[in-house]
Design a protein that fits this description.
The protein is mostly helical. It contains 8 helices and 6 strands. The strands form 3 sheets. It has a two-stranded antiparallel ribbon. It has a two-stranded antiparallel sheet with strand order 3-4. Strands 5-6 form a two-stranded antiparallel ribbon. Helix 1 runs antiparallel to helix 7 and helix 2 packs antiparallel against helix 3.
Length: 297
């Protein structure tokens, strides 16, 4: 088979073009830091990157949800602690006013403080966060509790706040960040016990006072149980956040492995390929520049 100059030229040109393309590709990798510039360059790696990016976006959303849940849970914990203090003080007052040294006058004075404790409990029940009532349940824009009357007529009205909204904190895992107002202030008899104690003191009703002390004890115990549930919820949210952090680290590493270039290795490869390309060009120029006379020498 006769090898003509055209065949040699075509082969040399093809080889040089391939070397040039390889150099350009390595230059792109070094400058961009990415293994591929479009999905068509490496469909498998591109699919891995897109899947990882989607997973990381979901993790970020879950973490925002956890932060929101922690904020509401922390607010409930603070509110329950306040209620605990109010009930503890109410019990002290009732114990003190149940002794033989207590009088109608002293109970009348004590009823004023008890009424304040009741109103403070109502205020805690109406705690707001970002313009909505934390313990408002499904009706978060409606005031859960309203204090009415005073002294012997002290009372309250309520929207009977029920309902809780679960928040997604991981794939297939949801958490209810707070109890509703009914669970905290009505089912525990917090408001009822404080109201009854205040009324008993205002009317100097020792029998009702003794009964209200028992109710206060029961309310105190139930609030402690709710505090325990709030603490358990805090642990759940912390564990969920830790798991997401670990998963994010793994996904980030996986995505990086699929798309990011090892810069040191890429630069070394680029220098090597550029050197080879330059050498090939020099050799080609010498070969193509030779004439028949050069071969006959």
């Amino acid at each position: 088979m006769r090898i003509t100059n055209n065949i040699v030229l075509r082969n040399v040109t093809t080889g040089l073009a391939a070397n040039r393309d390889a150099v350009l590709k390595l230059q792109q990798e070094v400058s961009s830091g990415l293994k591929f510039q479009s999905a068509s360059d490496d469909p498998t790696a591109a699919d891995q990157v897109m899947g990882s990016s989607s997973g990381l976006a979901a993790i970020d959303q879950y973490k925002r949800n956890i932060d929101a849940a922690k904020s509401r849970n922390s607010m409930e914990d603070s509110s329950l602690s306040q209620v605990t203090d109010l009930l503890a003080r109410a019990k002290e007052i009732m114990v003190g006013q149940s002794t033989s040294t207590a009088t109608a006058a002293s109970r009348q004075v004590a009823s004023k403080e008890m009424e304040q404790l009741f109103n403070q409990a109502v205020a805690v029940g109406n705690t707001q966060l970002s313009g909505s009532y934390v313990f408002g349940g499904d009706a978060a824009s409606t005031t859960p509790f309203i204090s009415t009357g005073t002294g012997a007529t002290l009372d309250f009205t309520t929207s009977n706040p029920t309902g809780a909204h679960a928040i997604s904190v991981a794939a297939g895992q949801t958490v209810i960040p707070t109890h509703d107002g009914k669970q905290i202030f009505l089912d525990t008899n917090v408001l009822t016990s404080l109201r009854d104690a205040s009324r008993a003191l205002a009317t100097n009703d020792t029998v009702a006072g003794t009964a209200s002390l028992n109710t206060l004890d029961g309310a105190f115990q139930k609030v402690q149980e709710l505090l325990g549930e709030t603490g358990a919820r805090t642990n759940t949210l912390d564990i969920a956040a830790q798991n997401l952090t670990a998963l994010k680290t793994n996904l980030t590493a996986f995505r990086s492995n699929a798309q990011d270039v090892d810069i040191e290795a890429a630069v070394t490869a680029l220098v090597t390929k550029q050197t080879a390309y330059q050498a090939a060009m020099m050799s080609t120029s010498k070969i193509l520049g030779m004439s028949l006379a050069d071969y006959l020498k």
